[in-house]
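re the bet — no i am not wrong, look at it urself. input seq straight from the record:
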Amino acid sequence: MANTSDIKNGMCIDLNGKLYQIKEFQHVKPGKGPAFVRTKLKQIETGKVLDHTFSAGHKIDPVRIENRDYQYLYQEGASYVFMNSETFEQVNIENSLVEKPEFLQEGMICSILFHAEEEMPLVLELPMHIEATITYTEPGIKGDTATNTMKPATIDTGAEIRVPLFIDNGEKIKVDTRTGVYVERVK
């Protein structure tokens, strides 16, 4: 067990049976009354951020987590199979842990957050950007470039995104996996 004086940014704690990561904290010593620690906690499973206040000296339960890189291999039923590039160990990740599965590409390196004591995967993070090829989009109309108009397009992973009018079939583009938004053309 630790107490509030051991709190650091990025530390994971078990609070009311759920895992939280400390995003920021502030020790407060008011002129009148006891000291306390104000924190912003991010719940690992859902990503929700909440404010929580601990009284000074309050006991907290730190949890050890590890971030490991795994390579995506294939989908198997209701889960995805990933392989550790160093040990060649394979792990199945449930669909619920993958936030945007439509952007997964074979061979992609993803970061998986593991509970170190239980060896249990908690969260899968995709790379920030991926390069994809446009498999289908309607042709743009010549001369219609005065406005910042977007059109629907399907990429090789099967995801549908919006791209500018000048993008055609077969072009490689960069996509932001967090928002699903077109970033730029890839040359």
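see?? The chain has a mean pLDDT of 88. told u. also The longest strand covers residues 65-76. so pay up
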